[in-house]
Amino acid sequence: MNKKMTFEEAMTKLNEIVGRMESGNESLETSLSLFEEGSALAAFCYGKLQNAEQKIKQITEMKEAGGEKDA
């Protein structure tokens, strides 16, 4: 997996993998490979979401702290 991949690209690829696996047309070997790739993509997306959530918390806390000083 490309570390420079965006969240949106990873989600698109993950959705493609899910679709292929749900189709039931893949061999066991291919399904295992897809599952492994999908798991890595899911972890990547989760990490991106965690980072975004942390940034939002920091911005919110800074805004609240600034608002208290102005009051």
From TrEMBL:
Family annotation (Gene3D superfamilies): Exonuclease VII, small subunit (1.10.287.1040)
One example GO MF annotation: exodeoxyribonuclease VII activity
Key word Nuclease present: yes
Subcellular location: Cytoplasm
Keyword Transmembrane: no
EC numbers on record: 3.1.11.6
Keywords from the UniProt entry: Cytoplasm, Exonuclease, Hydrolase, Nuclease
Annotated catalysed reactions: Exonucleolytic cleavage in either 5'- to 3'- or 3'- to 5'-direction to yield nucleoside 5'-phosphates
Enzyme kind, highest EC tier: hydrolase
InterPro entries: Exonuc_VII_S (IPR003761), Exonuc_VII_ssu_sf (IPR037004)
Pfam (any one): Exonuc_VII_S
Coiled-coil ranges (or none): none
Function: Bidirectionally degrades single-stranded DNA into large acid-insoluble oligonucleotides, which are then degraded further into small acid-soluble oligonucleotides.
Recorded family membership: Belongs to the XseB family.
Oligomeric form and interacting partners: Heterooligomer composed of large and small subunits.
Protein name: Exodeoxyribonuclease 7 small subunit
Gene: xseB
